[in-house]
Amino acid sequence: MISPKIIKRQYDSGFEADILLRKQFNQRFFGIIVDFGSSDPQEIAGSAHFLEHKLFAKKDGDISHKFEELGADVNAFTSFNETMFYCSGIEHNQKLIELLFRIVGEPYFTKENVAKEAPIIQQELAMYQDDPNWAINNTIMKEMFATSNLGLDVAGTKKSIDAVTAEKLLQVYKENYLPTKMHFIACGDFSDYQVKTIFSLVNKLQKKYFSTNKKAKFDHTEVIGQMKDVALSSQSNSNLFGVGIYLKNFKKVLSSLDLAQTLLEIMLESKLSVISPWFERMKKENLLSNPLQISVNYTRQGSFVTIFGVSEQSRRVIDAIKEELKELVPNRERNFSEDFFELQKKEWLAQNVRSLNNLSYLAVETAEESLDNEDSFANLRKLQTMSFDQYLEHCETLMKDSQICSARLKGKDEK
Amino acid sequence: MLKVNTLVKQNTKFTTATLGCFLRMPLTSHNLAYASLIAKSQMNATIYFRTIREQQRELSKLYDLQFEVTPQLFGKQIIISYVANFLEPTEVLDPEYTYEKIVDILEKLIHCPDVFNSDLLELTKKQLLSDYNELMQQPSNYAIERFFKLWYKHQPDYAENFMGPIEEIKEASIASAQKFVKAMEKMPSSVICIARDSKQMEKLIKDNFKQVGVLEEFMTNDFSIPAEKLDIDQVDNYGNLQAQLMMGYGYREKLDYKKQICGMVLSQYLAGDQSSKLFTKIREELGAAYDVEANNYANNCLFLINAGLDPDQVDEAKAIIKNEVKQVAIGKIDLDLLKKAKKSLLNTQLIGQDQENWQLAQMLRDQLFPDYQDFDREKAIKYVTAKQLEKFAQNLFFNESYVLK
Question: Can you list the domains of chain B with their CATH numbers?
Fold first, then answer.
């Protein structure tokens, strides 16, 4: 397997740019990622997400229309520690890059346009809140991280959305949209000449829009919730449940947080996935029939695992998960775990090879990795040479002193 | 000479190869229920790999081979699609990992469902019931289900939109599953593949996929379900934070490919992106929605517009939708927006070529629809005129409004 070719530049302001080459692809993807998201410090929860929406407003109207005139798509997303603006098209590279820098570099917030956006974001939040998944996820995030920004929805709350003003948005923008916190990415089939022109254009635009030499600040304060087991009353007939694990001791493995995340995901899959002995028992006892969704996340404000599943007897399944995680690899399961670890090495290799076929995914992942100084292809090589005992040792360290909470919807007999 | 339904294209771009085996059968609620059951069961286990654990382990050993089985609806037809995506062997250079081995295992997974194992059947039923229950808790899914149940209230065989009648799935037995699988063996099928060594793959497919169905006529003209005049206006109240609005326009006749493209352009013009008519009016001006969608279901003779809305603004949104469709029908078309919509669709076609699944779907269409292979989609999009759009909208009749609050 060959790693994709990435050409990197860093400018005097601290702004960075990457061009990732994928030959023969028609799509051209451009993005700017900002090292600031919903769980980072902001006076009003949801400001990062509101900012993401409102940066599309310009004096001459909604800038997305200009992308569409060029036949391109434009969008953005906000995650816990990042906000990303991106577009994708076939031609007009230069114009697309110029427009993308205008989105991020030219705030235009007015009382009117902020007031107009609030009900749209309220509808976005309502769309999620009608889904039982939201209630479960929201509860375990609050149990893990209380009402800190990490414990709340990325969009904030109904109340916080209404409290956002143009002045407050501008303040958040000025504090966080700094050249040292930003990264440009281009991905596609570019000639050597195009690579040269893209870098030169990016240099010109970053100078134009991001001239401040204000230093970036990062906050790593963790606020921990009550870590309770919560049963929610619900009108729905859903049997969803969720488990949250707060990882007190999550840290880099072989200089990489991504690798630590991968190792823990492998460990949890080996314990709880459909091919684990545990799942076999759950199936026999009629407690589970569908696989669990497991995910490990790290943020500046805390690292955690979420496990989601569906069961008519969710309380018993939650207890069984807690019991199973007490001992990572009991002697009786060592052979299975070792075999599973070797298979997972193949799976992660496959995942990296597959990622090369999806330009948008590849570009977003690469941009995120660049912000965090990560390299998925280097991590893959580290994983391939890791022994089972080393893996086990790392996982035990990462899981040390972790705490578990849960949320479930009350069963029919409890309602 | 017998015609074998296979189509293999050379992969010059991707690090993975894709193989799809597609099986066609008429849409009835019974067929859909059993197709869902067998599809799910085959994703769990098969005769050669009798437990989830064994089957998953085998797929992991093949560098996480992705194997998906899903029934897809094409108007009056169900296509059971078996799609495998796997690393090109030249990416890993593992002597144990070859096209021969992959095709051999895929053939076993596809052709050998385990319909003798009552534990597997019961597990699969439980999974489907649980999936269905959770799907229906999401208002947008529930609204789609209700919309189609009303739209096809006089044609119950077409009314199921997710997995067929849940009661029929609950009552399925080993004997009824075996009967269905026996019938599946004779259904027309086609095997399609995109792989680097297309010649070797073509040979392997011909050697391994020898079921009767690949010799049957896979192509058909019998997809379209003309819309029946209904005039439905229904509101269900469940106390949700957001209302789901579904507005269905029907047309009486089957559309040729050019008219289908017109429908696609109209959906893009009305709700394709942020400058589209309904997005601008309902989201930007009214502030009532986060998203608005429009889709032309050509095989169902249905043009559907839907949105998640502030419950207090449903009537205003309905009026806007009706008015915008009417504006197109009377020829008041924003030509700049039409140009943008066409440009966007053309780019979507080109970007689609960067995705294996999109290419596979196009190859399936070539096999399934008569003369589709000769139809130039890009050219058709380019040449859609305002007049054609106007005519398309004139043929639409407002048929159903369903609101879930």
Answer: 6-215 (3.30.830.10), 232-404 (3.30.830.10)
Q: How far is A351 from chain B (nearest CA, A)?
A: 8
pLDDT per residue as tens digits for the range B348-384: 999 999 999 999 999 999 999 999 999 999 999 999 9
- Do B60 and A359 make contact, defined as CB atoms within 8 angstroms? no
What pLDDT score was predicted for residue A415?
A: 53
Q: Which of B41, B49, B62, B63 to mutate to test the interface with A (most CBs of A within 10 A)?
A: B63
Within chain A, all domains assigned CATH 3.30.830.10 are found at 5-209, 229-414
Which site among B290, B292, B358 would you substitute to test the A interface, given the most A Cβ atoms closer than 10 Å to its Cβ? Answer: B290
For residue B212, the SS3 value is: helix
- Residue A156, pLDDT > 60, answer yes
Chain Cα centroid distance, residue A300 = 12
Q: To the nearest whole angstrom, how far is the Cα of A222 from the nearest Cα of chain B?
A: 32
Under an 8 A CB cutoff, do A1 and B91 touch? yes
Residue B323 class from Cβ within 10 Å (0-12 exposed, 13-18 middle, 19+ buried)? exposed
Number of residues that make up chain B:
405
Per residue in A403-415, pLDDT tens? Answer: 999 999 987 667 5
CATH of region A229-414, choose from 3.10.450.50, 3.30.830.10, 3.40.50.720, 1.20.1290.10: 3.30.830.10
Please, are residues A248 and A402 in contact by the beta-carbon 8 Å criterion?
yes
Average pLDDT (A361-382) is 94
Residue of B nearest to A124 (CA): B290
In CATH, A5-209 is 3.40.50.300: no
Q: What is the pTM of this model?
A: 0.93
For residues A351 and B15, the answer to whether their CB atoms sit within 8 Å is no
Rounded to the nearest angstrom, the minimum Cα separation between B137 and chain A is 6
pLDDT over 60 (residue B1): no
